[in-house]
Write a structure and sequence with these properties.
single chain; 681 residues; calcium transport; Ankyrin_rpt-contain_sf; transmembrane helix
């Protein structure tokens, strides 16, 4: 080996000049010394959306080393499209918040620092989802939903929009195809997910406090959202009512001129009206019975203790929005007339039993509705008797005369329901035909006469004993009889078509004299309608099979079809109808008290709505009471309704009592009468 190396060196020496060899050696030595003294050139990591999302999903902050240098060197930002999810527009920040490990993700502060150094921090934090399903959702919404207060504080400090609105389909009500409607706003989300600490921070932070008066795209405030998520369960009602009061009182302090409970949404609904419309009985009862004893927020109360003596309490309930006397839509009208309740009236009677609604209706009945109702019954019966006499003693022959006509009297009828509306139209048509001298008025008049007497069932609502019968008849007609008739008419038309086809055709009248055969011996153009009537007679058991078999071409087939028709209709369908009607009567009987209460309440409001506004105000139930002082120091006067109660479980607790002297001495001296107590043990 040594000999080979020496030989090679000798060859090189002889091959190159010595001077050139020394020069190249020195140059190589200088270059080597320069390389040893200088650092290695930096190697930049390349980032894309997949690597970025993978790093934040694993909460690996080391995987983000070099991200800032890469963005700065390539003049890119974290909100560029190449770093967003194509379908939703999601950036790496929501991705990190959706992948927390024990409530933390160490990549979140790193991402915020990088966004701040690249000059797009606010835009990065507030970048919303853009797809139809999650449109409008931001990182702040996700942090609140994940109940991570430290990240909510971090995002708000860095400039998060506290009024961003999540309007995607996922955030719509369930009846509209969504999953969880919370009012779109971050504050509403915190309230609807029962996070009072989060609510306090969002409304009190020094960076950007959330406005409690802010409304979403539906016009709903945070109170509307709370009412919407209520489900009448005990736990849900407890947290919703507690959060409701917290927000109501919190809004009154910075905005004393704004009562958040009076803000209307796009449908003209306040939170109380919405609770009545949606059947949220727990929230509804809490709102109308709310009693706040804190002096600073007492003006938000709707219930006031006027006086107390032992177990006896006299409570005053604010009637604003409950009973408006026609000036605006009232809660009572929503409970009784809203179409949503016509479709889903399960807990409507329970809401009418809530005080002061129950006692308010009773007071209306005693003050004006009972007398007006009985006068209406008497007037209607007199009208129908006169109508019946006119129809019975009308001239049956001769020319129609209008000299001594009673038709003008028909116009005095006052319709109170749909049947009476049809009845009134028929009466008017009959009167017009009579005055025109047209004999056809009789056919219209008899229909009006029948419907008029049927409409008398409306007045059975006034008595508990007979009030449920009209409901039974309505349910049987609409529910059971309609389904029966639908199937029965199909059967009858089908069998009539088949059986009439088996009858022989009648000969032409020209070929025979007066002895031409008719139905049932043969069929002609009028046979189908006559045969339908015969099939109906068979159904109710008064038909004659022998007469129907006379003109049959194939009597055996004809008879088989008739027998199967009788079995299907007379035996099966009729007995099924009887069974369904019995089931309906049983269901109505079980709920007879609640059904009558609804009818009774509807009757009271029907009578009240028939009055002009001036009369409504004169018949208004309640009294004007000074319940305290307003925020401006002036007396707080409200129209209230008094309910006296006896509660042996609560003794004289003089908190928030208006009058120190019990009873109504002034009222007693004026009326010389007392008022019975309502027992609520």
């Amino acid at each position: 080996m040594m000999k080979g190396a020496l030989f090679t060196g000798v060859v090189i020496l002889f091959k190159f000049p010595l001077k050139a060899f020394v020069s190249s050696y020195r140059k190589a030595e200088i270059e080597m010394s320069c390389d040893e003294g200088s650092p290695e050139p930096p190697v930049l990591k390349v980032f894309n959306r997949w690597l970025l999302f993978e790093a934040v999903s694993r909460a690996d902050r080391r995987a983000l080393d070099g991200l800032l240098q890469y963005l700065q060197s390539h003049e890119k930002r974290l909100i560029d499209e190449e770093f967003k999810e194509p379908s939703t527009g999601k950036t790496c920040l929501p991705k990190a918040l959706l992948n927390l490990h024990n409530g933390h993700n160490d990549t979140i502060p790193v991402l915020l620092d990088i966004a701040e150094q690249t000059g797009n921090l606010r835009e990065f934090i507030n970048t919303p989802f853009r797809d139809v399903y999650y449109r409008g959702q931001t990182a702040l919404h996700i942090a609140i939903e994940r109940r991570c207060k430290q990240y909510v504080e971090l995002l708000v400090e860095k400039g998060a929009d506290v009024h961003a609105q999540a309007r995607g389909r996922f955030f719509q009500p369930r009846e509209e195809g969504g999953y969880f409607y919370f009012g779109e706003l971050p504050l509403s989300l915190a309230a609807c997910t029962n996070q009072p600490d989060m609510v306090h921070y969002l409304t009190e932070n020094s960076h950007k406090a959330a406005d409690l008066r802010r409304q979403d795209s539906r016009g709903n405030t945070v109170l509307h959202a709370l009412v919407h998520i209520a489900d009448n369960t005990r736990d849900n009602t407890r947290f919703v009512t507690k959060m409701y009061d917290l927000l109501l009182i919190k809004c009154a302090k910075p905005y004393p001129d704004c009562n958040l409970e009076n803000v209307l949404n796009n449908d003209g609904m306040s939170p109380l009206m919405m609770a009545a419309k949606l059947g949220k009985i727990g929230v509804f009862q809490h709102i109308i019975r709310r009693e706040i004893k804190d002096e600073e927020a007492r003006h938000l109360s709707r219930k006031f203790k006027d006086w107390a003596y032992g177990p006896v309490y006299s409570n005053l309930y604010d009637l604003s929005s409950l009973d408006t006397c026609g000036e605006e839509v009232s809660v009572l009208e929503i409970l009784l007339y809203d179409m949503l309740y016509r479709l889903c009236p399960q807990n409507r009677h329970e809401m009418l039993a809530v005080e002061p609604i129950n006692e308010l209706l009773r007071a209306k009945w005693q003050k004006f509705a009972a007398v007006t109702f009985y006068i209406s019954v008497f007037s209607y019966l007199v009208t129908m008797i006169i109508f019946t006499l006119v129809a019975y003693y009308r001239p049956s022959v001769g020319t129609v005369s209008t000299v001594d006509s009673f038709s003008i009297y028909y116009l005095l009828t006052n319709p109170l329901c749909f049947h009476s509306f049809i009845y009134s139209v028929l009466v008017l048509v009959s009167a017009a035909l009579y005055l025109s001298g047209i004999e056809a008025y009789v056919s219209v008049m008899v229909f009006a006469l029948a419907l008029g007497w049927m409409n008398t069932l409306y007045f059975t609502r006034g008595l508990k004993l007979t009030g449920t019968y009209s409901i039974m008849i309505q349910k049987i007609l609409i529910k059971d009889l309609f389904r029966f008739l639908l199937v029965y008419v199909l059967f009858m038309i089908g069998y009539a078509s088949a059986l009439v086809s088996l009858l022989t055709i009648c000969p032409d009248k020209k070929t025979c004299n007066d002895s031409c055969p008719k139905y049932p011996e043969c069929r002609d153009t009028n046979t189908f309608s006559e045969f339908l009537l015969d099939l109906f007679k068979l159904t109710i058991g008064i038909g004659e099979l022998d007469d129907m078999l006379k003109g049959a071409q194939y009597p055996v087939v004809f008879l088989i079809l008739l027998v199967t028709y009788i079995i299907l209709t007379f035996v099966l369908l009729l007995n099924m109808l009887i069974a369904l009607m019995g089931e309906t009567v049983g269901q109505v009987s079980k709920e007879s008290k609640q059904i009558w209460k609804l009818q009774w309440a509807t009757t009271i409001l029907d009578i009240e709505r028939s009055f002009p506004v001036c009369l409504r105000k004169s018949f208004r139930v309640g009294e004007m009471v000074t319940v305290g002082k307003g925020l401006d120091g002036k007396p707080d006067k409200r129209w209230c309704f008094r309910v006296d109660e006896v509660k042996w479980s609560h003794w004289n607790q003089n908190l928030g009592i208006i009058n120190e002297d019990p009873g109504q001495k002034d009222h007693y001296e004026q009326t010389q009468g007392g008022r019975g107590l309502r027992r609520g043990w």
